[in-house]
Amino acid sequence: MLLTAAEKRYAITGGAISLAGIVLFVSMATFALLVSSGEVSISEAVFDAYILRIVRFTLLQALLSTVLSVVFAIPIAQALARQPHFPGRIWLIRLMAVPMGLPVLVGALGLIGIWGRQGIVNSLLTTTGMTEPISIYGLTGILLAHVFFNLPLACRLMLAALERVPGEYWLMASGLGMRHGSVFRFIEWPVLRSIIPGVAGLIFILCATSFTLVLTLGGGPAATTIEVAIYQSLRFDFDPGRAVALSLLQIALTAAVLGVLALFPVAGDEGPTSGKAIRRPDGALPGARLVDCGMLVLTALFLGLPLMSVVAAGLRADLVKLVAEPIFWQATATSAAISLSAAVLSLVISAALVQARHALSQEGKRGHCARAFFAAMGGASSLVLLVPPIVLATGWFMALRSIGDASSHAPVLIAIINALMSLPFVMRVLEPAYAIHQRRTQRLRASLGIVGLARLRLIDWPALRKPVLTALSFAMALSLGDLGAVALFGSDSFVTLPWLVYSRMGSYRTNDADGLALILGVICLLLTIAGTMRQSTKAASHD
Predict the structure, then answer these.
(1) What's the confidence (pLDDT) of residue 274?
(2) For the segment 152-202, what is each residue's pLDDT rounded down to a tens digit?
(3) How far apart are CA 486 and CA 459, in angstroms?
(4) Closest residue by Cα to residue 113 from 132, 136, 130, 139
(5) How far apart are CA 61 and CA 263, in angstroms?
(6) Whole-angstrom Cα distance, residue 459 to residue 464?
């Protein structure tokens, strides 16, 4: 046994406490929704024509966004895989990471700058004689924004799968003289087919629970999703019954989608390899290179122009005046405190769960209870997908409303909700790194008898410092740019940077909103870059 009895006991106890805390926080919010609902609200939610129309639109926009993101990601991933020496390839891959670390509200402003009524695209179309330019608001804008944020995610996952194809496959394809169609049919498509269900399911969940994009670009009741309708029911109509009914519908919808996703098999390995260099036969032809280069240039423009628009519009604002305003520093201090608290809490919970799962994995034979406990700790991070942040915020709003002013507890609630929102990413960063570290060091550590703080200082921290800081920086960026949980509680006395940007947009102070969005985007991107700097350096060295 490589863990002492005390180490195992402490690890499992910490994991149990963390799991119980997550379940209790989510369950209390859900219970508050159920208690506040009543039979009348539920029956109205099932048969009310307005709510059914919202559900249909939520599913429609999520389905269309998923299809567009996946379909367009396939040729882009193929082009990147076929052209390993494309000029600026590593920078394009890095550009694809930017939307994942960019606050959604900032990205929406960038898209408005390019595709809005006064944007570059519509200005060019107007010069050609078109009287009705493209409308960024409504279903069109929502789909465009979802593709902007989710296409890079799908593309990076597909590219990683294609790059894992053994070099022997391409050697055999060259020997057989395979053309592009045959390469796609026999090599690329089997690989992509194995990961597309998981990628599509993840994107569908993200789009079905989308809040900030739909709130900004929805364009009215005809383009409203369930989460936006929850916000409107509490913030503007103050109809708690409808908000509770919509929240329960959102939980049922996400549970059904997650249940369907669980039926798909996990993508497997592509096969053994002897490590031969990859030399694809379908990327060297002049026609293929021209098409691939054109595809990659269009992708760079699609992703890069909105970011450039954010920078240009932000620089036109009076940044000195904005920074000098007391409300800016109040919002910055609030956002910093919440994001740091949320990131640290997410890190502590994840570390406890990871250590407990590792302690249980050391046992040779595990009973049914131990296996269930192991699986429950692994799935704890997925609870935020089952009960999205706006639903959690609604549940706690209803719970605290009966005992006093819910807004007085807003900072603590938002920090906890953002910590849970960051949990899936933090777990994915920490668990593999911790498992590798333990395999490399646990036998030597056990033989030397190094335990406690000495183990943390001499062995664990030096090896795990970089993944811990990576997880911390990403969790802070996610929390800093979040508007979902803040939207219910935002007021003159409780202001975060995203809420300040949104309130300036609502009061038609667009120059101020652009300047604040630039500041917020730069802060979040700096945090994201700090977290990926080591990985980017490695990628560049191997490119």
Answers:
(1) 45
(2) 989 988 888 887 776 667 667 666 667 677 777 777 788 888 888 888 988
(3) 40
(4) 136
(5) 23
(6) 9
Distance CA 498, CA 500 (A): 5
Which has the minimum average pLDDT: 110-119, 328-337, 434-443? Answer: 434-443
114 Cβ contact partners less than 8 Å away, ≥ 6 residues apart: 120, 121, 305, 306, 309
Query: Which helix (H) or strand (E) covers residue 379, if one does?
Result: helix 368-379
Helical residues (DSSP H) of 135-235, grouped into ranges: 139-163, 167-176, 180-183, 189-208, 212-217, 226-235
Among candidates 36, 516, 23, which has minimal Cα distance to 244? 36
Distances, alpha carbon 473 to alpha carbons 249, 297, 434, 464, 526, in Å: 33, 30, 18, 14, 9
Residue with token string 């005809």: 222
Report the C-alpha dihedral over residues 215, 220, 222, 228, rounded to 10 degrees.
30
pTM: 0.81
Angstrom distance (rounded) from CA 360 to CA 191: 33
Residue whose tokens read 């240009």:
312
